[in-house]
Here is the input.
Amino acid sequence: MNNFITLVRRDLRLAFRQGMDSVIVVAFFVIAVVLYPFGVGPDAGILARIAAGVIWVAALLAAMLSLERLFQTDYEDGSLEILLLQPVSLEIAVAAKVTAHWITTGLPLIVAAPVLALLMHMGTDGFGVLVLALALGTPSLSLIGAIGAALVLGARRGGVLLSLLVLPLYIPLLIFGVGAIDAALNGFDVSPHLSILAGFLLAALALCPWVSASALKQALRS
Here is the structure.
């Protein structure tokens, strides 16, 4: 656990020194949502109907912006090879990097989401479920994205390939995340949708660090 916390702190320091990745992610999220009222018109009823889907799609795409660099910098400067030689397992290192990635990208999206929901005229009954659904879904986005980032490490046009790899895996999260908000707005039980999102998160926590670590080891051997 001490090694895990140390690695998280290291990646957070590096992220805050660079700074731009988090700013770009949040800026993209805000701009993508703000553009929709200009495209579909200012009708509050239409905006309220599409608000959940718009916010989730924008959050999903925003979370992907920094995935390609999740391991790329450490790969280029040799830090990944050093991590492989350390007594801490590579799976723990991957989990630490994913945690830092979520703190610097997923968490700001969750904070910004209610403000954008208000802009999209979403009913107040959906605000709490929106935050909870994103809190369960965005860590899964980072965990699944780590697999894609590890698989395309060192490849040409890795960003395009990464999108093709992870977008199909993001669809269930999108469906149940939006479904939870719609259920709350229409007075239905949201627990089935949130339970499925929680199940996805537990499965991702159990599998993704090990799959990502195996892909990283393969990339370092090649």
The CA atoms of residues 1 and 92 lie 9 Å apart. DSSP finds nine helices and no strands in the chain. The chain has one domain: 2-221.
